[in-house]
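Deliverable D2.4 — example input (structure tokens):
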């Protein structure tokens, strides 16, 4: 679990709103799209932990569901609009070790956690997108292989983009990942963090 401070919950709301706004502006490279909405959700998950990461993702999914025009079928909207954002918060499982390794200045270990979290977060996002496409699109059978190659490259671009931004943040501003009220560091580690 992450910290339960009011400030932590306010951050959850802010990052959920940012992720929702970003999701309305896809970045395309040729015919492939780069999913930037996962970036703030993975960041808040690494900063605050699993619970608050899942809540941020769920809130972003709800906001996206409310503001995006979708199908009249609620189950389709849940799978194709809510689902992709809602479960990115699972990357909060990496918060403890990311914060500890950054606090102990073990950048290579922190980098491995960040890259793994980016991979898993984007994988969950694209699994939901592909499942939605397979279940709710009638024309998929003729272009199923194209569907996987298109989403496969978008997935790779999104993982690389997210990981690079988070790695740069970790390298040049590691304290952004470690809130003062974190529950992932010992009292001794926190006092050293506060005295830096």
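Example output (designed residues):
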């Amino acid at each position: 679990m992450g910290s339960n401070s009011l400030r932590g919950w306010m951050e959850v709301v802010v990052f959920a709103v940012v992720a929702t706004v970003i999701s309305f502006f896809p970045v395309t490279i040729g015919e492939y799209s780069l999913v930037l909405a996962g970036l703030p959700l993975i960041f808040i998950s690494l900063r605050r932990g699993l619970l608050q990461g899942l809540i941020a993702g769920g809130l972003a999914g709800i906001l996206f569901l409310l503001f995006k025009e979708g199908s009249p079928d609620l189950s389709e909207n849940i799978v194709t609009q809510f689902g992709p954002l809602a479960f990115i918060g699972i990357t909060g499982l990496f918060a403890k070790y990311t914060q500890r390794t950054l606090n102990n200045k073990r950048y290579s270990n922190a980098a491995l956690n960040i890259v793994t979290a980016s991979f898993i977060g984007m994988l969950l996002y694209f699994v939901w997108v592909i499942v939605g496409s397979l279940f709710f699109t009638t024309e998929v059978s003729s272009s199923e292989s194209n569907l996987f190659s298109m989403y496969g490259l978008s997935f790779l671009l999104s993982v690389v983009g997210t990981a690079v931004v988070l790695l740069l943040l970790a390298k040049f501003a590691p304290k952004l990942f470690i809130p003062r009220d974190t529950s992932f560091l010992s009292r001794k580690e926190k006092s050293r963090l506060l005295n830096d």
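The mean pLDDT is 87.
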